[in-house]
Structures are given as C-alpha cells and as structure tokens.
Amino acid sequence: MSTVDSFGSKGVLDVNGTEYEIYRLKSVKGYDKLPYSLKVLLENLLRTEDGANITEEHINALASWDPKAEPSTEIQFTPARVIMQDFTGVPCVVDLATMREAVKELGGDPSKINPLAPAELVIDHSVQIDAFGTSDAIARNMDIEYQRNGERYKFLRWGQTAFNDFKVVPPGMGIVHQVNIEYLARTIMAREVDGVLRAYPDTVVGTDSHTTMVNGLGVLGWGVGGIEAEAAMLGQPVSMLIPKVVGFKLTGSIPAGATATDVVLTITEMLRKQGVVGKFVEFYGEGVGEVPLANRATIGNMSPEFGSTAAIFPIDEKTLEYLRLTGRSEEQVALVEAYTKEQGLWHDPSKEVKYSEYLELDLSTVVPSIAGPKRPQDRIELTDAKKQFSSDIKNYAAKGEDDKSAHVSMADGREFELKNGAVSIASITSCTNTSNPSVMLAAGVLARNAAAKGLTAKPWVKTSIAPGSKVVTDYYEKAGLLPDLEKLGFYVVGYGCATCIGNSGPLEEEISEAIQDNDLSVTAVLSGNRNFEGRISPDVKMNYLASPPLVIAYSLAGTMDFDFEKDALGQDADGNDVYLKDIWPDPAEVQNIIDTAVDTAMYDKEYGSIFDGDERWRSLDTPTGETFEWDSESTYVRKPPYFEGMTMDITPVEDIQGARVLLKLGDSITTDHISPAGSFKSDTPAGKYLIANGVERKDFNSYGSRRGNHEVMIRGTFANIRIKNELLDGVEGGFTRDFTNGGEQATVYDAAQNYKAAGVPLVVLGGKEYGSGSSRDWAAKGTTLLGVKAVIAESFERIHRSNLIGMGVLPLQFPAGESRDSLKLTGTETFDIKGVTELNNGTTPKTLKVTATSEDGKVTEFDAVLRIDTPGEADYYRNGGILQYVLRNLVRGS
C-alpha cells in the first residue's frame, strides 16, 4: 500500500458511472516525452511510493530519463500479477509450501506465505505427443499425461485450495501465453484496495520467458526465474535498472507469399544483430495501427529470442477490437479506453517520443524464411534453404557422410530410405504461432490444397498439431479444414507446449533405431520459438523454425535437402508435378476465412469454464491443509533443502579458495544445456536414481515434469546430451574430469558429489551469452546444489544472471576483451576469488580478483567484473539467496 503521494497524483476516473481511484501521470513533469513502456513504469512508482524503497527521487529520475545514458538508476517495479506454467510453477509451489514450514520453525505465521498479487498457473508443459496421426490421439495423450503426472496435479490442486489468490488452469485448456492474451490479461487492472476500486495498468512477471507475448496487448511484462516470481508473489518488488528503450518503426504491409512468422524471424535476426539484451523494445509509428493484434503478440512472444527484456506495442483501436473479439466485457473495454486516454497511454503516432536507439522494418520487404539448425536468430531465406542445409550438414554428419542413408522396414509394411536431412518431425505447435489465426488458417488452406492434389506427408514424418487454445480447433472445424489437415496426418494431439518444450514424444521405434544405429543427422521442423540443440528430440540433431504452412510443406517434401522453387512436392492424379506455389494459400481467402470462422462466441464457450477442467481433473484425490503432507516415497514432489539449518542471522559471505572447474563451456550456452527439460535415459544419474526408487523406464517422464524433485534435477544439471565440456575432447553430454580421482572422466553429478565430500568448491567457465534461452530457475538451483560458487563468463543473459544471484552463486565476467581462451585457461587450474567479503560491509565491489594456478605452478591473475548490478541483488546474495531474504523479512514482519 502506498503511504506517500509526493506529486499529488491520486485522483478519480469516472467511466460510465463507475468511479476508479487512479494515479495521474500528468502530475509528473516530463511524463509525456517518455516511451509508452516507461510511462507504465512511472505509474507503477507513483502508486507504490512509500518514501523508503520507492521515493520522490526515483520518480523524478524516471521522468527525466535520458535515452542515451547507460542504465544506472535502480527502481523497484511491483508487477500487478504473476503467471506460471507447470514445469516452472510446480517448484514455485514446492518452495512456497517449504517456506510455510520454515516460517513456522523460525517462529513466524505460516499463513503469511500467500500470494499478495494474483497468481495464475496454466498446466500446459506436460502433454507429450505419444500418440499421433489418429483421431483418438488427443484422448490417448491426455490419459497418458494424467497417468504420468497425477501426483504433480494433486499437489497443484492442493496449492489452489491452500493459497489465497492462486488459480490453476487444468491440463488440456491451452498454452499459458495464449490463455494469457485470450483470457487472463486484464490490460487495465481494476482491483479493490483498502475498500476503494483502483484502476492501474496490468503488468506481469511470468516463470516462462515468453511471458512477453502479452506485450502485444500493451501489457508490460517479461519472464523471470521462478525464484523471482515467488518473491513477486510474496510482495517483493522486482529490482531493476531504468532500461534503455529501442524504438522499432514498422511500415508497409506483409507481402502475399510471407507470413507473420517470417516477420518475426526477420525481426529476431535484426534485433540480435543490434544487441538489445537488457533493453526494452517498443514499436511505434503510423505503421503500428496496421499490425493486427495476433501479429503483435507473435512479435512480442519472440522477445527472449532477440534478447530484449520486453517487446511492447502501445494500446490503440486494434487492442480494443481484440479484447471484444476474445470476449472481454464491455465494461472492461470501456475502462481500457478511458484509462489509457486519460493517462496518455493511448497510441498517438503524431506525438514525438525519444528512444535510445532506432530501427525500422518495411514489412513489404519480408520474404518466406526458416531459422536453424540450432538458434532462432539464424534466419535462412527459404530460397537459400537447400544450399544452407548442404553447408550445415557438414557440421552434423560424420566426415564424408553428408548423404548417408539407411533402409527402414516398418511393422505396418511401410518401407523407405531414411537419409541425412530427413524431416522426422513436422509439428504445428507453440504459443508463438498457434495464437495467430492468419498462419494457422493458412496452414489449413495449404493442407486442403495439397490434399486436393493427392499429396501426403512422407511416411517417416511424425506429424502433429498442438494448438495453443481450444478456440483454434473451433475455427478449424467451422472453416471445414480439419478433415484436410487429418488427410495429411495433422491430427490435433493435445493443447499444450508439446514439441517446442521437447515433448515431441518418441519417434517410431524402427525409425529411432535406424537413426541411432547409423548415426543419421535427421531434422525437425516446428512452428515454435526454440530450436536449441538437444531440445526437440534426442534422435534429432538439426531443428528448424518455420511458419505453420511451411511445417506442412516440409512434411510433404520429407527432407531439408529441398528447393521449393525447383523441386516438385509430388504429382497430381494426372501425373503433373506439383510445386509449393501451386498449393500456397491466397492471403485474401485466408482473411475471408478469419472474418467468417473466428467469432467471440468461441472464446466465450472455451473460457467460460476454463478453471473447471475435465472429468480427469475433477476426480483427482486432493490433499487439504495449510501445510503440505510430504510423501517420503514420492519421486515427483519432495521437500527441497534450501532452508535446512537456516537461522534469522545471516552467515557472512566468504572468499572462494581452492575451487576446481566443474565445466569449461563455449558461447551461447543455454539454460537447456544447463538444465534440460526433455526425456532422459536409464544410464544417466537421474535415470539410475529413479530406477533405484522403483520407477520403471517407461514412467521416467521428463526432467521438466520432475522439477518438484530436487534429487532428479541436481542429477540432470549440465546433463544435456549435446553439451560440450571443453575439459574433455570430443565428448558430448553431462561429463567432466574429476580431479579428486586423477582427472578421470565422470558424470558431472558424480564428480560434484566427490568434490563436495572433499570440501572443494566449484566454478564454471563460460563464453558469450551464458544462460540464454528459457527463464529456467532450475538452471540456477541445480548449479548451486552441485556446489558451484561462481560462474565466470564473457557475458550473461539477463534472467539467468539474476537467478544465479537469487541462488547464492556469483556471476563474474572476464575483463573486457578477455576470455577463457585468451587467458589460456585450460580448466585444470585451481581458482581463488578474493574480495567477496567486502559484500559483508554493505558495499558491492565492481571487480573481484581471480587467481588461477595451473598444475605446474603457473599463475594467471585477472580482475573479474562482479555482475551484482543492484543493491537489492547484493542483499539477496548476502542472505544466501532471494528466498532466504524474503523469509527473514516475512518473519520479522509477522
């Protein structure tokens, strides 16, 4: 609650007879020159000013923002709500349950551990594509999902009853980000505070990096680690520096052959080149009004792929149209319009706003594109795709075996040659595109045109559609396109993240065996946002992002070694060659189908009972009580060790001495490399643990689904099958050298346990963009639980750096221009890090002295930059982590 109003900004807004308390931006001089996103932050500070954490000086600093200055002013941002998905949400609820017990043990009130901001969790990451290509695939996949995850779901249902202001959207309803824009997002919040109805901008942090999708609705929000999200739920503001804001001007319109997916891949490439990590991106100009809301959401969704904190569109008439289409009430739409116009948040392209940097894209220049084979920013023009594949395959196939193949005989009589480059998975999946009717219906029309020509997907392709909401299926049915999609093998297999998160499910046994036995380099094509190595399927080395119609086109081609301009997809009934141009959808027809097949009644029907769930959900046996009864036999949900032995007194932080290198890693190490989400085998440390605890191989599920069990997750840390530890030559996977055992090769987990027993602290060496990708808190939790005290890299992605601090791990950067290679660090040295103890005095040193001593006594010294960027982060580190900090404060205040 705000106790100070230095600017006299509090007032009343009347909307059609309903009065709302608001904090007027016009009370602050200079507000009108700010970019939209910073106006939202300014209102946030005005409303939460308390004279201590948020002061008049903070508000003036934001109002007088210098677009060119390097960020230096720390502010406290209080998001209006928190959103989670189940992979990251389960550990959040586990931590909250554990905190309740810890508060009790420290003499506080356990009921204080409750969300203070609305928190919503959508179960969307657990459906796996086991069944496909049949009409009952969706029912079979959901049955299997409940068998695998019933224990987790019971736990989440307990959380829904135990915690106030916490809601769970059951499985089978849609993908979190699509459910967010179509239903959960308020755009402008209306909430009773101290008996008064208050209106303010909807802002959100989420435990998934693609939370930025809601930026398309004008809602400021971004992904944070689960640890930060828990703190936000418990009323802790998010500490941040006032960012630079990049202005991105859009002009023109998308040409007939291109799609919104092609636009977003182009923007991703442009912004990665520009360098926008830690910055806001804001779209502006006359062209913004021409961009449909679904396209805005598609662009906002990809913000993590280009590295920005947020990628936001302002609110305008298109926003209101979308709110009406998706079934928001007229009262809500009226509030959004009145509030944004009153506050200067309504988009006015004639108003001049200054930005830190400028970019521009003429949409008419966008061409059909894909991205791959391992990063979303590696865009390839479709006309160059075959040539680029021929070059890239050399990095994946054994030397001289670019065109390797194997004969496959299937049990059902199918026989074919499986070659390098074969498309083994073609999946229309992921919030990025399944929320966008223009690309989804384009895929349907292409399928209809292809079926009419007698074309089918190649027999080795695993085909699937996993829509982001049930509304997609409704408009496919209304448009009469489902039968044609199904003729090509594209049956709806579930409503969830699916292939994009690594839940593509197993390939057919004979195909998988042929790939493994012959070391084939096959491919996946998906309409997703993530294509990192090892993410999509353990059998697939090369992954490509593409628009939904191109996903279908590649299923027909059956290979990445294909030129859509020159190569025929097949023959029609008369023996004529059929090319992509012959079946490509006409944009005017697609728009006509959108106008006639997508309506508000669909949204009202599907979201009217969104929290109810199906019979499977309603029949779950749910525990009750203020604290959770942990099951000592559980392999899904276990009480984590973060608070064991914790007292109210802070243990002083210490310098690091005699540390060993657990891993020496290269550039672009993602959180998928550090903490994979997908499946794992029985000979891994996690697999051995589950087998020892009576779990059969078929019931392993995935790392993501086991995130409520720290024992599985520690064993899965740095266990991605594609990670390359430079301590070893030519070895992929979760292995290292164990210097407690003469430098012998060992799994990362086993080596870490030996180091722990010997009392040896650990460090990780990395390159550029360390920790890019998903906002995966387990990448930091696993790191700390393995005994890693510091990560030394050339640069960090924002969320992972913050998560490391939140778990008590030091993020250190090599001096500018230096790296592990330029300093000739082999990883066999012992490391001492001095200067950490200065933090005990309440100060944060800019650098720490690192001394690396090699086995022959050679000493390498350098001053590493300490990436604890704000006083708040320093407090978290001193407390041993953000959760310990919050817990101590809650106990003191209870």
Automatic annotation (TrEMBL):
Keywords per UniProt: 4Fe-4S, Iron, Iron-sulfur, Lyase, Metal-binding, RNA-binding, Tricarboxylic acid cycle
Domain Aconitase A/isopropylmalate dehydratase small subunit swivel, residue spans: 688-816
Pfam families attached to this UniProt entry: Aconitase, Aconitase_C
GO biological process, one term: propionate metabolic process, methylcitrate cycle
Molecular-function GO terms, alphabetical: 4 iron, 4 sulfur cluster binding; aconitate hydratase activity; metal ion binding; RNA binding
Entries under InterPro entries matching the protein: AcnA_IRP_Swivel, Acnase/IPM_dHydase_lsu_aba_1/3, Acoase/IPM_deHydtase_lsu_aba, Aconitase/3IPM_dehydase_swvl, Aconitase/IRP2, Aconitase_4Fe-4S_BS, Aconitase_4Fe-4S_dom, AconitaseA/IPMdHydase_ssu_swvl
Group of enzyme by EC: lyase
Catalytic activity: citrate = D-threo-isocitrate
Functional note: Catalyzes the isomerization of citrate to isocitrate via cis-aconitate.
Protein name: Aconitate hydratase
Organism in which the protein naturally occurs: Rothia terrae
Top-level taxonomy: Bacteria, Bacillati, Actinomycetota, Actinomycetes, Micrococcales
